[in-house]
Amino acid sequence: QKEVEQNSGPLSVPEGAIASLNCTYSDRGSQSFFWYRQYSGKSPELIMFIYSNGDKEDGRFTAQLNKASQYVSLLIRDSQPSDSATYLCAVIGDGGSNYKLTFGKGTLLTVNP
Amino acid sequence: KAGVTQTPRYLIKTRGQQVTLSCSPISGHRSVSWYQQTPGQGLQFLFEYFSETQRNKGNFPGRFSGRQFSNSRSEMNVSTLELGDSALYLCASSLDRGGGQPQHFGDGTRLSIL
């Protein structure tokens, strides 16, 4: 059973701080890793994806991947109240029968003004 | 570029009925996946279609089925509805089946079973 684990939170940070969201996965064959943001009552929105070990930066967001530790994280710098949402970590294998997203349960982030 | 379009947005059905949900992927995207989201189970994979063929299936009963048309549009069907089928059903499309291709979600269909 492939699993993706996230702290359910809620994670509360003040405006302007760095929010750190963490995710571990059980399947060593996982190839690609995604972070989705989901506002209450809305559908998931892709914000970052990463394939290789190391860091990937996009604006205020940085995704970090460590395949040896089976760990992926998302850092949000200069957090804004509009970042308040549930963040979903998802992993996917290569093609074939592994081509399906497995999601964590999500971490609820609250950014306080 | 238009995103993934799902219809209808909301549905209310009673137990025992069946329902068909529709998904139009992003133009040029050929892979369509379906997911079920509930408060208790989170997001769970239902199935994936590519080139009109089901390529992958999650752990759901046979009451859940789907198909894909030559224009990549997809439908999913749930027969003999049960109370536990109440959920948000999400469709996601990607360019192809490569593991690195990100999947983009539609707004979903919220299904309520009375």
Describe the structure.
- The complex is a heterodimer of chains A (113) and B (114).
- Chain A has 113 residues and is mainly beta.
- In chain A, the strands form two sheets. In chain A, strands 2, 4, 5, 9, 10 and 11 form a six-stranded mixed beta sheet that branches. Chain A has a five-stranded antiparallel beta sheet with strand order 1-3-8-7-6, with no helix packed on it.
- In chain A, β6 and β7 form a beta hairpin.
- The N and C termini of chain A lie far apart (40 Å).
- In chain A, 36% of the residues are buried.
- With 114 residues, chain B is mostly beta strands.
- Chain B has no helices and eleven strands.
- In chain B, strands 2, 4, 5, 6, 9, 10 and 11 form a seven-stranded mixed beta sheet that branches.
- In chain B, a hairpin with a 5-residue loop joins β7 and β8.
- Chain B starts with a strand and ends with a strand.
- The mean pLDDT of chain B is 95.
Write the layout of secondary structure elements.
The complex is a heterodimer of chains A (113) and B (114).
Chain A: E1 4-6, E2 11-14, E3 19-25, E4 32-38, E5 45-50, E6 54-58, E7 61-66, E8 71-76, E9 85-92, E10 102-103, E11 107-112
Parallel strand pairs in A: 2-11
Antiparallel strand pairs in A: 1-3, 3-8, 4-5, 4-9, 6-7, 7-8, 9-10, 9-11
Chain B: E1 5-7, E2 10-13, E3 19-24, E4 31-38, E5 42-50, E6 53-57, E7 64-68, E8 74-78, E9 87-94, E10 104-105, E11 109-113
Parallel strand pairs in B: 2-11
Antiparallel strand pairs in B: 1-3, 3-8, 4-5, 4-9, 5-6, 7-8, 9-10, 9-11
